[in-house]
Amino acid sequence: MFSTIVVAVMCVALLAGAAFAHGHVKQQKNGILMVAFGTSVPEARVAIDDMVQAAQKAFPGTEVRLSFTSNIIRRKIKKEQGITIDTPLIALSKMQDEGFTNVVVQPTHIMPGEEYSELAEVVHSLKTISGKYGFDKLILGKPLLYTTDDYKALVGIMERAYGKYTKSGGAVVVMGHGTSHPSNSTYSQLQLTFDRYAPRFVVGTVEGFPDLTDVQNKLSGMKVSHVTLVPAMIVAGDHARNDMSGPDDDSWISILRGAGYKTDAVIEGLGQLDEIPLLMVQHLKASVKEAAFK
Ligand code: CO
Question: In angstroms, what is the span from residue 111 Cα to ligand 1's centroid?
Answer without folding.
Answer: 14
